[in-house]
Fold each of these.
Amino acid sequence: MALVVQKYGGSSVADSERIKAVADHIAHTYRLGNQVVVVVSAMGRTTDDLIRLAKETSSVQPPREMDMLLSAGERISMALVCMALAERGISASSYTGSQAGIITDTVHGKAKILEVKGDRIRAALEAGAVPVVAGFQGVSTEKDVTTLGRGGSDTTAVALAAALRADACEIYTDVSGVFSADPRVVPESKRLKKISFEEMLEIAATGGKVLALRSVEFARNHHVPLHVRSSFTWEPGTWVVEEDPSMEQVVVSAITSDNSEAKITVAGVPDKPGIAAKLFRSLANHSINVDMIVQNTSRHGTTDISFTVPKDDLSTSLEVTNRLVPEISASDVLADTGIARVSVIGAGMKTHPGVTATVFETLAAAQINIEMISTSSIRISCVIRSDQAETAVRLLHQAFELSEN
Ligand code: ASP
Ligand code: MG
C-alpha cells in the first residue's frame, strides 16, 4: 500500500466526461489498496475566463478580490470530482486550500506556501476516504484567500505530498511526459523515462511548460519523486527524481526554447565601477527578474550593457532604466522584443567537454547569429532572433541525436 498524491490539470478535468474518466482512475488506484489524495485545477480555460470577466467588469481589480474570484475555479472541479467518486461508491470529500491548511504569505496573485497543516486531509485518509483538494490556493497569515500564481496547482500537489510524506506525486496532464523537445516543433522528439530534478528545473526555467518551476524547486528541496503522465492515455510517463550517480548520464537530454523575454540595451555608459550596480539594484527594487546579462568590452571608455527581462515586465523595466539615464550618463536605451532563448540541457555536460562547441557549430552552419550566451553546469543558452528559434531547436535536437532511433 502506498500514499499517492494525484494532481489533475485543467485539460484533465475539462468537462464532465473527463471528470468521469478521472474518477474511474482514482477509484481504480484506491481499490488497489492505495491511499489517494487528489489535487485539481480549474476546468479547462476557467481561470482565463474568470480573468477576462474581471477585466470586462472593472478597470481595477483589487488583488484580494481577484484571488477570491480565481480560487472559485478549482472549487467547481473539486466538488464535481467528489460527486463522480460518490457515484462509484467511494467516500470522498472536497477541501479548499484554506480547509486543507495551506498557509501562505500575504502576496495576492503569487503567494508562497509557508506551511501545510493538512490535519483534515490526514483525518480523511485515516477514515478511509479520498480527500480532494482545490489546487492553486491557500489562506494567508492574515486569513485572506490567496492564489499561488498561474500553474500553481502543481505546487499545491507537491507541497501536500511533502507534508504527508507521500510515496509519489503524480502530475496528470494532456501530454504523456517530459519530452526531449516540444513535440509540436520536433515531431520525432522522445519521451524521457527519467530525469533529475536539476535538469527538470532547467527545463522549466527555459520554456518547458509541463511543470511549474516552483513545484519542481519544492519537489527537489523536499525529495518528492514526481511522475508526469497523461490522463488521456494513462501510460507511464516521466519520473523526475534525485540524480542517481550510478546511472550513466546522457550528455544532453532536452532542447527548449522560450520567447517570453525581451532584450534591453543601455548604450554608451561609462566603463567604471558602480554603473551596473545602480542599474540592477533599481530593477531589483521593482521586483524585475533579470535573466541574461552581457557587457561589451569598452572602447573610448564607454560600453553597452544588454540584459533580458520577461516581456510582461518590459514597460516597467524601460521606465526604470530610462529614469536612470542621466545618473549613469548613458547615451541610449533600446528595447528588442524579437528575441528567443534556445537552451540545451543535460546533466552529462558536467563531464563531457565539447557540447558548447557543437551548439555553436550547429547554429553557425544554419547562419543563425548568437546575440547572447549564458551557461550553468548543465545548460547552455543562446539568445537568437525569435523567427529562427524553431529551426534552431530542430537542428540542435538532430545534432545531439535525441530522436527515438
Ligand atoms: N487554474 C490555475 C491556472 O490556470 C492553476 C493551475 O491550473 O495550476 O493557472
Ligand atoms: Mg495548469
Amino acid sequence: MPFTIAIDGPAASGKGTIARALAARFGFHHLDTGLLYRATGAKGGDPIAAARSLTPEDMARDDLRSAEAGQAASKVAAIPEVRAALVAFQRDFARREPGAVLDGRDIGTVICPDAQLKLFVTASDQVRAARRAAELGADPAEMLAQLRERDARDSQREAAPLKPAADAILLDTSDLAIDKAVAVAVDLVLSARKST
Ligand code: DC
C-alpha cells in the first residue's frame, strides 16, 4: 500500500519546501496542489470549465508563481465545482507507489483523510510575508496585506476551508530554519512508517 503524506498550511508557511524535501528523501512523488488552482485561475474564462479541462501545459506555465496568480487561485478555489473537478486527479496521485506527498489546504481534511501522516505547517504572518517578499522581490508590507487577504478567503470559505485535520501534527516554522523544519518532518515520517 502506498504511503501518503498530507501537508497543509497557509501560503509561505514552508509547506512546499518541506513537501519537496520529504519526496526527495523518501523517493516519493510530489504534487503541489496549489498549482492546480493557480493554473485554473490563470487560464481565464469560466473557472469551472477551466478546472475541468486542465492540461499538463496549463500546469507548466511560467507565470503561475506570481502574487497575482496566487490571488486569482484563491478566488477560483472558493468555487465548489472547481474543487470537485480537481478531486479525482489528486486522489489518484496520492495512490502512486511507493508513496506521495501532496501539499495544499485541504489534503488532510478532504482529499486524503486516510493519509498515514498529516502535517499542518504554519508560521506567523509577518515571517511568511517576509519570506514571500524575498522570494518574489516584492514589498513586505504589500505582501503582508495580500497574504492576510488570501488567508482570510482560504480559511473562511464554505468549501474545504484551510484548517488542520483533527489528527494533523502542527509544525510552526516561524523560528525554525528550513533545514531544521525538514529534519523534524523527516523524523515524523520515520516514526509514522514504523507504526503503519
Ligand atoms: O499553495 P498556493 O499558495 O500555491 O495556493 C494558491 C491558492 O490555491 C490558495 O490561496 C488557495 C488555493 N488552494 C486550495 O484552495 N486548496 C489547495 N489544496 C491548494 C491551494
